[in-house]
Amino acid sequence: MAHEAGLDRTYVSGMERQIRHPTITSVEKVATALGVTFGQLLD
Asked: What range(s) does the HTH cro/C1-type domain occupy (predicted)?
């Protein structure tokens, strides 16, 4: 998923473990990689 989002896997892992604070841009990339909208991801 990190590869699909164009993000480093350790960065995504840090977001999942709540160690890293994602930017709006990185959240949007994750949403796109998952095939959902930004709003759906945050719900």
From this structure: 1-41
pTM of the model: 0.84
**Cβ 22 vs Cβ 41: under 8 Å:** no
In this structure, are residues 24 and 32 in contact, taking their beta carbons and an 8 Å threshold? no
Interior/surface letters 24-40, b for 16+ CB within 10 angstroms, e for the rest: eebeebbbebeeeeeee
**pLDDT, tens digit (0-9, with 9 covering 90-100), for 1-43:** 999 999 999 999 999 999 999 999 999 999 999 999 999 988 8
Give the chain's domains with CATH numbers.
2-42 (1.10.260.40)
On the CB side of 35, how many CA atoms lie within 13 Å of its CA? 0
